Amino acid sequence: MPDRRPRADAVRNRETVLAAADALFTDSESARTVSMDDVAAAAGVGKGTLFRRFGDRDGLVRALFEARTDSLRQAVEHGPAPLGPRTAPRRRVLALLDALLTFKLANRHLSRALEETGSGSPYEATHYTWWHGTLRDTLLLLRGPASREDTGAPEAPEQPLDACAFTAHALLAAVRADLVEHLLGAEGASPEAVRAQLAAYAARVLDADGAP
Amino acid sequence: MPDRRPRADAVRNRETVLAAADALFTDSESARTVSMDDVAAAAGVGKGTLFRRFGDRDGLVRALFEARTDSLRQAVEHGPAPLGPRTAPRRRVLALLDALLTFKLANRHLSRALEETGSGSPYEATHYTWWHGTLRDTLLLLRGPASREDTGAPEAPEQPLDACAFTAHALLAAVRADLVEHLLGAEGASPEAVRAQLAAYAARVLDADGAP
DNA sequence: CCAACATACGGACCGTCAGTCCGTTTAGCA
DNA sequence: TGCTAAACGGACTGACGGTCCGTATGTTGG
C-alpha cells in the first residue's frame, strides 16, 4: 500500500496558487485586504482546491513563506560563514539578524501577513521557534560554556527563563515585520539605515552581554 | 449654541459597556473570540449603541485601554520619581520599561487586543507614539546633550533614523503584548522572572549606549 | 486502448461577524 | 406638560473564512 505520488495537475495548481498569492500579497497594501476568494480567482482555481491544498488561510501563508525562506534556512543550517554553523558566535549572531532583517525588507508584505494572520500568536509558529532556537544557541556559545550550570539548578530541566533565551526574543522582536514596515513607511527610513541601526543596536547588546 | 453636556443615560451606558468589555476580554483566552455582539449582550445594550459610542471595534478597545492606562500616563507625565520627568534619565528609562511591562503583565488580554485589533499596525496608534516619544527623549538625555543640536537642525526636519529612536523602538518591542503572553504561557515564566530579564537586558543596552 | 478507480476540481452554500439604518423611546428643558 | 434633540435597539447587509458534494480527470492494470 505505497503512497502514490501526487497527481500532476495537483502540483501544477499548487505552484500556480503560490505564485498568485505572492503577487497579490506584494501588491496589496495590507495583507488583510487579500481574501481567499481573491487568491482563488487570481490563480484561476476554485475555492475548494485552495482549501484542500493548504487547509486554511494560515496554511497558505506559511507554505508561501517557507518556499521563499527555504534557501536562507539552508544557508543557516548547512552553509558557509557567516551564516553557517561554523561561524564564530558573535559574528554569526550579527549575520543572522542582518539576514533576517534583509529578508523582511525584501518581503515586507509577506512577512507581515505571516505575523498577523496567525490564529495564535506568531510565537507559536515553527519558523519562529526555529529562529529563536538558533539564535539562543549561538548566544549561549558566545557567552561561554562556563556560566552554564547556574541558570538551572543541577536537577532542574525546566529553566525558569534563561538570559540567552530572553535576549534572543528581544533581538528578534526588533526585526518584527510591522516594525520594519513602520520604519520604512511612516518614518521614511531607508533599508540601509534600518540595517545600520540594527547592527549597531545588536552590537551594543552583544558587547555588554559577557560583562555583568 | 453651546454644546450641551451629554445625556445621563449616555454616560451611564458608556461605563457599563466599558466594564462589560473589560470583563469579557480578561476572561477570554484570545481577544478575537470576543465579538461585538458579545459585548453588547453582556452590557445589556443594543449593538447600535455600542457602535454609536465607540465608532468601531478599535475605538472600543482604545477607549478601554486609555481608561485603564490613564493613571500610569499621569504618573509618567507629571508624577514624582522614578516615573516622572524629573528622574535621572537612566533610572527613568528602566522605570518606564518596567512600568509598561508590569501593566501588560496585569492586563495581558486587553493589551493583546489593543495590538492585534488595530486595522493598521500598532505603530500608528497614538499610545505607542506617546510611549516611543517619551522613551526616545529620555534616551536622548541619557546620551548627553552634546550630540543633540541636530534634531531640530533648523533646515532638517527629517532626520534619517536616529539611534535613540531606533533603540526606543527596539526596547518597546521587547515588551510587546504577544511576546509577554508567550513567555508567561508557553514558556511558563513567572511575571517576576520576566521583569528581571527585561531589567537586565535593558541595563545591558543602556550601559553600552554611551560608548560606541 | 479501455475501463474503473482514486484523486482533484469548482463553486454553491453556510455560519459568523463588523458595521449600518431607521423607527421608537426618553432625557432635558421651557 | 409638551417639545425636541439625543440616544436607543435590533433587524439587516455585505464580506469573508471555511465546508460539502456532485462532477471531471489523471493514473493504472488488464
Overview of the structural elements:
2 copies of one chain form a homodimer. With 212 residues, chain A is mostly helical. Helix content of chain A is 67%, strand content 0%. Chain A folds into 2 domains: 6-55, Arc Repressor Mutant, subunit A, CATH 1.10.10; 67-209. The radius of gyration of chain A is 20 Å and the shape is globular. In chain A, helix 1 packs across helix 6 (108-117), helix 5 crosses helix 6 and helix 5 (89-106) packs antiparallel against helix 7. The longest helix of chain A has 22 residues, at 57-78. The structure holds a DNA duplex (30 and 30 nucleotides).
How are the secondary structure elements laid out?
The structure is a homodimer of 212-residue chains.
Chain A: H1 8-27, H2 36-43, H3 47-54, H4 57-78, H5 89-106, H6 108-117, H7 126-143, H8 163-173, H9 177-184, H10 191-209
Helix pairs in contact in A: 1-2, 1-6, 3-4, 4-6, 5-6, 5-7, 5-10, 6-9, 7-8
The structure holds a DNA duplex (30 and 30 nucleotides).
Can you give keywords for this protein?
67% helix, 2 domains, globular, homodimer, 212 residues, DNA-binding, mainly alpha, Arc Repressor Mutant, subunit A
